[in-house]
Amino acid sequence: HAKKRGRNTYSFFTDSMNQEAARRLQLEEQMHGALDRGEFEVFYQPKVDVASECITGVEALLRWQNPVLGSVSPMVFIPVAEQTGLILALGHFVLEQSLQQLQQWQSMGLNDFTMAVNLSPVQFRSATLAAEVEQALAIAGLSGNSLELEITEGVLMSGQALVDDTLATLTAMGITIAMDDFGTGYSSLSYLRRYPFHVLKIDRSFVNDIAEDPADRELVCAAIAMAQGLGLKVVAEGVETREQLRILAGYGCDVVQGYLFSKPVTAGELTAMLLEQRKH
Length: 280
Ligand code: C2E
Ligand code: MG
Ligand code: MG
Ligand code: MG
Hints:
With 280 residues, the chain is an alpha/beta fold.
């Protein structure tokens, strides 16, 4: 009997592993050449100043629409792209697209906000990252002051000397460095102490239940106070309700990003929002 169950268990795992492997293979297959086929597009989500409720920045977020798989979440395809190395081409694409788009907005007189781009730890393993960023800025005719780079703890855990050098070079170019997903890592506090961040982004998971959960309120309140003590600007992610905004404002949060104001939208849709804002 035990033997039989053992065999069943074995085949159960084999099946699910096969399914998982097949899914993964299909994902990789479809991802191959997808950039050249134009399946990737950069969307933009507004970051809104708490005091004025004006858009003071946007975050570039990658979208993938595939004929076979449909729309695939970055939570699914970014990790795969990091493993296959495609993230280098994707990262370059996002940087180039978003900066050219920002240049276009600036030329329309929509020039009082910054562009934030997410960087993968894999991109930081390349010694030419800072040069790549510098070149993308130059091609778009922009200075570093209008660019913000969002990095996670994963970046800081990999290859210290190279990461130190790259961050120092980027900072010297006037680029703003934001710590993304704050609170979800293992040693956010020690990294805050070690690296020259300008912005702290509180992860959406802490903001979610802020209206219902007193413990989450305490954590967010403390994180904001700490960031302010260190001279960092605070952005809260995933703000979906007026009540969440009210609580965050009370704690002194500077900027919010979330569905309350807007989901990530196409460049065209954001243009309309910016033009609308300019009227007021
Ligand atoms: P992230 O950098 O923390 O981006 C914020 C995520 O929260 C986005 O998910 C955004 O759509 C979502 N979000 C914002 N406001 C709300 C809200 O009010 N409610 C809810 N439920 N969600 C909200 P998205 O676009 O699916 O991206 C997920 C993650 O994928 C990003 O997290 C980032 O880590 C990664 N990612 C996306 N685009 C890129 C990229 O171009 N490069 C790299 N390296 N990573 C990227
Ligand atoms: Mg981000
Ligand atoms: Mg984030
Ligand atoms: Mg996040």
